[in-house]
Amino acid sequence: MRCGNGIEARQVDELFINIDPIQAGGRLTADAMKAVIAYGDGYSVCDNCRKPNRLDYISKPPIAEFHKDVAAWLNMDTVRTVPGARRGFQAVAHTYVHKGDPVLLTSLSHYTEFLAIEETGGIAREIPVDADHKVTPEATATKIEEVKREFGRVPALAFIDHVDYQYGNMHDVKAIAKVAHGYDIPVLYNGAYTVGILPVDGKDLGVDFVVGSGHKSMAAPAPSGVLAVTAERAAEVFRTTTIVGDVTNRKFGIKEPEMMGCTLMGATLVGLMASFPHVKERVKHFDRELENNAIVMDALLAIEGTTCLSEYPRKHTMTRVDTTASFDTIAEAHRKRGFYFSSALGEKGITGLIPGATKIWKFNTYGTTKKQAMHLADAFIAVACENGLPLKK
Amino acid sequence: MRCGNGIEARQVDELFINIDPIQAGGRLTADAMKAVIAYGDGYSVCDNCRKPNRLDYISKPPIAEFHKDVAAWLNMDTVRTVPGARRGFQAVAHTYVHKGDPVLLTSLSHYTEFLAIEETGGIAREIPVDADHKVTPEATATKIEEVKREFGRVPALAFIDHVDYQYGNMHDVKAIAKVAHGYDIPVLYNGAYTVGILPVDGKDLGVDFVVGSGHKSMAAPAPSGVLAVTAERAAEVFRTTTIVGDVTNRKFGIKEPEMMGCTLMGATLVGLMASFPHVKERVKHFDRELENNAIVMDALLAIEGTTCLSEYPRKHTMTRVDTTASFDTIAEAHRKRGFYFSSALGEKGITGLIPGATKIWKFNTYGTTKKQAMHLADAFIAVACENGLPLKK
Known about the structure:
The structure is a homodimer of 393-residue chains.
Chain A: H1 12-15, E1 17-18, H2 30-38, H3 63-73, E2 78-82, H4 85-96, E3 102-106, H5 111-120, E4 123-127, H6 137-151, E5 158-161, H7 173-182, E6 187-190, H8 202-205, E7 209-213, H9 214-217, E8 225-229, H10 231-237, H11 267-282, H12 286-301, E9 307-308, E10 318-322, H13 328-331, H14 339-347, E11 350-351, E12 360-364, H15 370-386
Parallel strand pairs in A: 1-11, 3-4, 5-6, 6-7
Antiparallel strand pairs in A: 2-8, 7-8, 9-10, 10-12
Helix pairs in contact in A: 2-11, 4-5, 6-7, 12-15
């Protein structure tokens, strides 16, 4: 079936159990699917835009209420929607980082945080991770001291990923933020893998900014996300425009330069809003998600030679495993080479692994039912057995 | 019908002839509606993302081909998609404008261009318009000379709206760009009201950047848009990342800082792509759109006291009229006050006017059929007659 010239209709999550590491949290809810159709037209949310003419003031659909609800849910003071978490990073970096300023992030930080720093002319300084691939408050303090010696000043901003994209490890943001705040460094909490997945309490974490991704973890269409800030920081990041036209003397009301005015005017925003009640509910049941992940991990680790590169037991469903000494040993002699692995899983109704990858790979069981988790577990064991890989006793 | 908690399904374009000035060009095509459902899930276009891992290299769905097609269609060299035209302005401003730099725009420029300048620390300088609300090459030259005297240097960049948002007037971008280039000022063509509406040839216009809006004029969901540039400028605006992790020595491939990496990862992009063949076709028939606009304008101007504030005859379907001496004269004594006007039109199946506005207002007939245009014309005349307003002889 086609949905346009040369565009095949995508049916990945309809036909398969999808364990793609970045797609699991962004599958639309049924309400979001209805919303993208009902609000698909370009400026669809602007029907009832009245003075002061800003997206977050619109009450029909209930955009204003949504902004307040998200702020309360994250225990922060002010929220704006953004076209992706990365645009939240950009807005914050642009507010605090000037050319030549050192900026703190971690050895596991996402590339979009680096780009946000690069775009402002900042200089990236990574906190090293320990042997377990964890960022510690001690390493944070040491790195800040190093930056002070190198630059004669502390970093202008710190980006800390609660759960990193490489290992899915959970880092102690609360303790790290405390260290950074001891040096008066504002802290941005990157919740791309947590906001919409598990409970997040910004005030308890003691962070200045919470950034979430709609399309990664809030069951919303791309590009979408949220930037939640404390009242103190709101006046800085969400400052309103002061520019004036020199000929017309025009001013531009309460539009916010870092947001470039209104942000998500249609399907993306209403998709995010429609999924929100479901997202609020699902974060309360993250324990079930970890149980399902454990079912799959138990199976993988039962295959001789397979190791978990992520922290274990798992605190997040996105997991990195090493099958160099198990599934990869088959690849060389297999007629499909490394593609045998994703191919065999595909035959069992499983997708989301990079085709050809048999050494180190990531997967995400988020959103699977227990039955699906058991099917995944059985499938990995079956592919191992079919290829003569030994199981642990 | 609801599409989520408290969110009424929008049925504006299903139930009414919608002449909202900003919504007319952003109504989805049927193919785009299919696309937003099929590709609604967050990172839906990333199923087949392979090295070098950048959005515009993905061939299934045919994203790479789409980028090439859009560049050819606009007669420019390189295209990227952006989350709204404003994010195109931001990327270009950020590349060329430094703190304190003067930037040229016009007395009719959109607020998002001002915000792009403000965000980079630039200083806005408006080209005055003439008595007909047109920006001329002569006024451009005069303003550049003024800026030179004031700042000791020429503007770092010029934003020129081909069709402005206030009057829908068409400005002579080709001649204006020639003047700006005489001073080596790069020119950004703001095609928010033209790209996707009428034919645009970037090389013929002689501009460095063409920015279009998906949700305003390309029948796409928000936020979406395109930034098309010349080969010379591509190396500047689309330069690739050079930042390096100091601990990990990580580099980030061919990601582009001004784009913040990948831009539109799902429904927005595929919506834009699905509508594109229809959009390419519709720009060839803009003459029909002007004919329909003329049907409506003839009716409005037949009502004694009504004047057209936009250039006339119309060169664009988005039009500003003054009914202070016609429809507004009824408002004071009417029990519905000024709301009688939009209310009476609503009863005739017409929407998109700001409720209560009876003095100066804008409308856009884009996308109406001839029959709908005739209905609009009849409706305006009928509301005039019902309220005892005289028609011209």
